[in-house]
Amino acid sequence: MYYFIINPHSRSGHGLEVWQKADAILQEKGVEYTTYFTEYTGHADRIAAHIAEQSSVGGTSCTLSVVGGDGTLNEVINGLVKKDFSHITLGYIPTGSGNDFARGLGLPTEVSACIEAILSPKACTLTDIGMAVSKETSRYFLVSSGIGYDADICRKVMVSPLKKAMNKLHLGKLTYVLIALKLLIQYRPCPVSMRLDRDKVLHFSRFFFIAGMNTKYEGGGVKFCPDAQFNDRKLDICLAGELGKCKILALFPTAFFGKHTWFSGVKTYRCDSLEIHSRVPLPVHCDGESMGETDRLLLRVSGKQIPVLLR
Ligand SMILES: Nc1ncnc2c1ncn2[C@@H]1O[C@H](COP(=O)(O)OP(=O)(O)OP(=O)(O)O)[C@@H](O)[C@H]1O
Asked: Where does the source fall among the domains of life (predicted)?
């Protein structure tokens, strides 16, 4: 059985356009499927939990495909983990402005290739599911979760009218860059301490951000962790601290190629868990979706994985 969860509003309406193409291909092929359209933030979470529960009756496996951006995918994974999802395989048609999950796994982006991967997959890969736990809440992620400057960028991009305008011009990724530059001027680095794998303790007096990554990319193609593997049951960490703003500006373009790690002040680690304590509450994101602010965050591998269809 094929299920589709569609966020028609992803990339400012691009999701609906892409779905209409996908729908036409599926009908032409005579495929039977059930569709659910998201109507509000958090709806994909509820729909995914409902599908997991409903489709588990009878014990047959099914394919749940997401038509949306990384944010929609994040909601879907958070819905699935609330139920037994062992019978579910994930298909994906990326229609967001960042699409870092598809980039990280090397998934197709062209709609007919995505449908091909869903209907006649040549391979399937298990993908790790990470977990972010703050004092107030917890959330799972597929791409990344982070605290500090990068989370502030996500938070501001989400509510920016610039995103809609840029998406219309097919320049959605530029929104992240422009907001990153604006925020850099205002950002006040602060002291944090962190504990890696309950063992190694590190202190930074001028901290910008930490990104805990399942895949190599976040922020629409920024290669924060060039060596991250999405199925190694580990979390790759990129940390920027003890850096001046001019240096951040200089290394920013190099991060698209994963060369920022050559700069002193940028550190990468691989771990099972990372606890972060900040002197002041800092913004947190999960797959680009804002998780509010916290002064204590735990990023860890959850031990859960989900199979994803490949072309
Ligand atoms: N019907 C809807 N109307 C408005 N917002 C919605 C609707 N359905 C889902 N959403 C919200 O849209 C947000 C953005 O979705 P998503 O991340 O998939 O696309 P995007 O922001 O265009 O892409 P990206 O995250 O790659 O930049 C999510 O926070 C989701 O909760």
From this structure: Bacteria
> pLDDT tens digit string along 224-243?
999 999 999 999 999 999 88
Contact 219 CB / ligand 1 (< 6 Å) = no
Please write the tens of the pLDDT for every residue from 121-170: 999 999 999 999 998 899 999 999 999 999 999 898 888 888 777 777 77
Q: Is residue 289 lining ligand 1, measured as CB closer than 6 Å?
A: yes
Taking the C-alpha atoms of residue 286 and residue 272, their distance in angstroms, rounded to an integer, is 17
Distance in Å, CA 79 to ligand 1 centroid: 15
The finding on whether 144 has its CB within 6 A of some atom of ligand 1 is no
User: Which residue in the block uniquely carries the two structure tokens 């703003």?
Assistant: 245
- Helical (H) or strand (E) element with 64: strand 62-68
> In whole angstroms, what is the distance from residue 301 CA to residue 292 CA?
21
2-121 homologous superfamily: Probable inorganic polyphosphate/atp-NAD kinase; domain 1 (3.40.50.10330)
Is CATH 2.60.200.40 the classification given to domain 131-303?
Answer: yes
- Total-model pTM: 0.94
Parse the chain into domains and list their residue ranges. 2-121, 131-303
